[in-house]
Design goal:
17 helices; about 80% helix
Length: about 450
């Protein structure tokens, strides 16, 4: 499928991704809603471990984004017969990495987590959540393969349907396993982790069944046994490794930020867990358009339409900012309504409310920065994107440490580190795209 830089094509690709992201983020929201009724310890532990687990999972997401760029480029070139083998090789690579990470979470993670968490209650709840959550990693990685395929060929509506199914199943299972209704065991925080893992298993099976029955994907030779090719593995590695490192740096930095917050007390961690869910929820438009920018840019270059790349990025940024503005208006008008969804603790609600103005400002900065940064990645400039991410994270953590440990300022000031991070990502990415040096990159 060949994509244009029109608003119509950008929206056509973006809205299913956003629907899918909405359902995906609602999984985290669901976990917090249920565990917020269990207690502050369970709420804080789930927030901390969801970041830790996401750090692991984003390795697979980074690999899939490399595959997505390769698939989008071949689709733009009209080389549809090559896509099936790319998907097969991507699947093998994903399962290999998932196996290593599963063993790491089962055997080594408890010792590593213990080095960072000061509260014994939070530590025990964190281990319980992670134990059950880790079993879903194989199916998360397979889901990323399907996401890379359908995003790369521009048929993103599939992603929306499957992730909505994921949300519904996860919500039902959370209700049954956290509180033990209808004869199910009352598992608390562990039940939330198990519910998410089972939901991922069922969703992946449904997604695979859809792919096998989808007549539109037969053009790509997906049903043939993959032929493991060193050249494809090499290109996937070259594209994916910088992305994997980039996501590790980015989310690893966010985990360390939450460690700093956890050291401030269980209430600060509970407040930040609520804010994290609001942050990710209202950033859905930005991340949806960012993924679109990645595919559109790569597809346009594959078509030889380099002159339309900046137009596509401008238009995607405009749509991202506009939709974020509309969404955040509801947060400004009804702040307590959103906060009450996550917790019944009045102290957590009031503590979160004081930080909301800062958070809204951060969300707006994200809406522009993440699109430009992903547009840069769509050109294939992976080493540069990794360098920018690394520099951004050094500044981000250095700023947060200065605020928390040296200046001893409160939680609202720590959250301003997010604005610093997005600014550091935006500026060099924008100047590089304006330089036209990306035209020389071959993928």
């Amino acid at each position: 499928m060949q994509i244009s830089a029109s608003y119509k094509d950008i929206w056509k690709i973006s809205y299913p991704i956003m629907l899918g992201s909405l359902a995906q983020n609602l999984i985290g929201v669901t976990d917090v809603i249920f565990l917020g009724r269990v207690g502050e310890v369970a709420l804080g532990a789930s927030g901390l471990m969801s970041i830790f687990y996401t750090v692991m999972v984003m390795m697979g997401f980074g690999i899939s984004r490399g595959g997505q760029i390769l698939i989008a480029r071949r689709a733009g070139e009209g080389r549809y017969d090559a896509i099936g083998n790319i998907v097969g090789n991507l699947t093998v690579l994903q399962l290999m990495v998932a196996s290593v990470l599963f063993l790491f979470m089962q055997l080594a993670a408890p010792y590593i987590i213990g080095l960072f968490i000061s509260s014994q209650a939070v530590y025990q709840a964190s281990l319980e959540y992670l134990y059950y959550r880790s079993f879903g990693i194989f199916f998360s990685f397979l889901g990323f393969v399907l996401m890379a395929l359908y995003t790369g060929i521009g048929r993103t509506s599939v992603i929306a349907y499957t992730t909505i199914f994921l949300f519904v199943v996860n919500a039902v299972l959370n209700y049954l396993l956290v509180f033990g209704y209808y004869g199910f065991p009352q598992m608390g925080v562990g039940g939330s982790g198990l519910a998410s893992s089972i939901a991922e298993v069922l969703t992946t099976l449904v997604s695979l069944a859809y792919m096998l029955l989808d007549k539109h994907t037969r053009t790509y030779s997906l049903l043939k046994l993959p032929h493991i090719e060193k050249t494809i593995f090499k290109r996937l590695s070259q594209l994916s490794l910088p992305l994997v490192l980039q996501y590790l740096i980015g989310l690893g930095g966010w985990f360390l930020l939450f460690v700093l917050i956890e050291n401030m007390g269980e209430r600060s961690l509970a407040i930040s867990t609520v804010l994290k869910q609001i942050y990710t929820f209202f950033s859905i438009p930005a991340w949806g358009y960012a993924s679109t920018a990645n595919s559109v840019v790569s597809n346009l270059i594959g078509q030889g339409k380099q002159e339309e790349v900046m137009t596509a990025i401008y238009r995607t940024c405009f749509l991202s900012f506009l939709m974020t503005l509309v969404c955040c208006a509801t947060l400004v008008i009804f702040p307590e309504t959103f906060l009450d969804i996550f917790t019944k603790s009045e102290s957590v609600v009031q503590g979160s409310k004081t930080i909301l103005p800062i958070l809204i400002f951060v969300i707006f900065s994200c809406s522009m920065s993440v699109v430009v940064f992903n547009g840069l990645m769509g050109t294939g400039a992976m080493r540069l994107s990794l360098l920018i991410e690394a520099c951004g994270m050094v500044v981000y953590l250095g700023y947060a440490y200065l605020i928390a440990k040296i200046m001893l300022l409160g939680l609202p000031y720590i959250w301003t580190a997010e604005f610093v991070y997005w600014t550091v990502l935006l500026v060099p990415s924008w100047f590089y795209l304006q330089s036209d040096r990306w035209r020389e990159i071959r993928v």
